[in-house]
Write a structure and sequence with these properties.
By secondary structure, the chain is α+β, with helices and mostly antiparallel strands. It has 9 helices and 25 strands.
Amino acid sequence: MRFPLLRLLLAAIAAAALNATAAGAELPSWAVPVLRLVSATHAEPTTGVVLSADGLVLVPHDFARIGDEIVVLDGGTDIIRNGRPARFERSFPELGLKVLAVDGLNRRAAPITDSPLADGSVVTLTAFPPAEDIAEGAPPVIVPATVSVPAGNAAPSISPGSALPNVTGPLLDACGNLAGFSIAEGVQEMAPSPATQYRWQPALLAVLAELGLAPTGAPCGALPANAEQIPTQAEQVPAAAAAEPEQPEVPAVIATEAAPAETPAETSPDELPFAELPPLESGPYVVDRTPILPVVPPSGPSWWWLVGALLLFIAGLGLRRLRRLRQRGWRRPPAPPDAAVDAGADSATADAGRDAGKAAPPEFAEPAQAFRLVLRGQYADGRELLAAVAVSDKAINVEIGRGATDLVIDSPAVSRRHARLNGTAQALTLIDLGSSNGTSINGVPCMEHEIMYLEPGDTVLLGDARFTVTLEFAAGGQRQP
């Protein structure tokens, strides 16, 4: 799977921002970031839910369509190393859900129970923030809400007094089980929206049944009004350790926190909604039941992930250039007949030259050849565009513009110094010099001073002048009209 340079940079910055803010709040391991590469310069993130250990991930139905490039990040921020390509597995349009198959995804499945939610239960939206908030270093979205279940109607709904943001992500019950799934309407945003849809346990269980999967997770009742009535892990561990020392299920981390818990905690349940819950009694989920601490706003910007993103940008630029040189680079034009080596030349003379050390590898000993850099195309009014300049295949540095430049384009829509061509015959780049009307390659805009690689046959647009760039041999090293 190949990623253009700008896609690599965008996804790396987004993943680095998520990793930088994860210290303040934790997401369950089965909630994964899913990226849809919209274009060469944009990517749309969302939160997916892992349904099985073999890589089935639940996303909104309208998040992606056939032909889109989807990547799931697994255990790291490097999209090359940790990015897992996804493909469509099953679609549930009546539920607004879609299932992706991700090869090599190493995550456990989300715990789901068939125990229905009770009226007044608390669920927590746990998801990655919208793209704009990710770019600003925002922490994950962790927002609790109260569920209303009307009498005689088993369909839960979010209470009007505790509206949730218009963000896609899982809804967790008091024990950390997957109780529902929030589906954002349109562009995700932190403001509530009446169009946000929610899919609860019956819909999730129906998806599991269609996929042939069994629900995992322990039933969990609603939180009582007074959370202090629920015995904490700190209160349970010392007594259990003294009376029944053969209970090894309690993690060592929780036992360490039990020592200073002799005085009852006075923290209200609103501040720590999950801190007072007992651990799951069985299954491999005890580690993921670590209490979720309150979100603490970052005290300052995290500069280190910016440095990491810059390093990834440099590495991506080098990899892209190496790939183009090896696979799709510029090919040197063939030499003219008068420059070809005579087939009947004396082989003894050639051998003597090699013995004398006069011949070196081609990249060092081959002299610079004279070429013409030619622009061919037309203006917006239909006039033919033809401009050429003599260059060397070893070093090309040519400016294009309306003023005193190497290649002159006679159009008022072209700036005096519009763009520059740099590189060699094997790798040629185009740089916009801050023009007024912009530059694009094959319809992709070039940012100011952005380095863009040219390939044979690419169409360049400067203002209203459209042309292609070719490199032709110039006999005698002289400029030809």
